[in-house]
Amino acid sequence: MSCPYCQSDWFWKKLGRCQRCMDQLTVLSVVCWLVWWFAFRQEPTSIQSIALIVSGFAFNGLLFLHLGMRFVILPWQQRHKSHQHNHKR
After folding, report:
1. Global pTM?
2. Where are the alpha helices (H) located in the chain, listed in sequence order?
């Protein structure tokens, strides 16, 4: 990937910073669940159905980690840093 965040070695440095990754995870999640719904929901115990369910949950989990970092953790850290910086003056 060409994103500087994605080329980082540390997993937690990547989360919530790359819009391309979040877009890809959104598309993968939607496509995975749509394929499961239209092709495999009638056979939930088939190996294909189980693979899509596991993949869907993995995509959703990673997307929620990205979104949580972007909209909760990173803004909180910025507010906390700016509050400490203003408080030291």
Report:
1. 0.78
2. 11-14, 19-35, 47-68, 74-88
